[in-house]
Amino acid sequence: MTTDNVKVITRNRKARHEYHIEETLEAGMVLTGTEIKSIRAGHASIQEAFVQERDGEMWVVNMHIAQYDPAHRDNHDPLRPRKLLMHRREIENWAAAAQAKGYTIIPLELYLRRGRAKLLIGLARGKKLYDKRQAIAERDAERRMRRAMSERRREQ
Q1: Domain contains 155
Q2: What angle do CA 69, 32, 58 make, to 5 degrees?
Q3: 152: in domain
Q4: What 3-state DSSP class applies to 6?
Q5: Which of 29, 50, 104, 140 is deepest in the core (most CB within 10 A)?
Q6: pLDDT, block means (10 residues), the chain with 156 residues
Q7: Which pTM was predicted?
């Protein structure tokens, strides 16, 4: 994200390695006070999280937001499902796309925009093993090319 007032809390780094990301969307979340305080402190993880549709609403499941220590007994459940704030048409379109064989919706980034927690979600299709190998080979070839170019510049 290149816009101002954005603080990235966490990224799902494995997502782009494990999946082909077809489409992305920014969604807000319904959070409790202790959850947003914990997110602002940077204590959240979206590594094992996924998004699913239930009763016409989108929910993020398995997102871990650590308990906020000063809250003591008024704390939240770290793994509770959290409702995403999306327009009805977006929910319908994304739910229909996720029903297609091999597709899922996964969180890519959790960040704060103007003090509000936002979740960047992606419509993803799982990569096969040979896709992963091909991506690694392309990355290595690109790295070798850059290294060769920099060595040529040094020689001149």
Answers
A1: no
A2: 130
A3: no
A4: strand
A5: 29
A6: 74 82 89 87 88 89 86 81 91 87 87 90 80 80 88 80
A7: 0.75
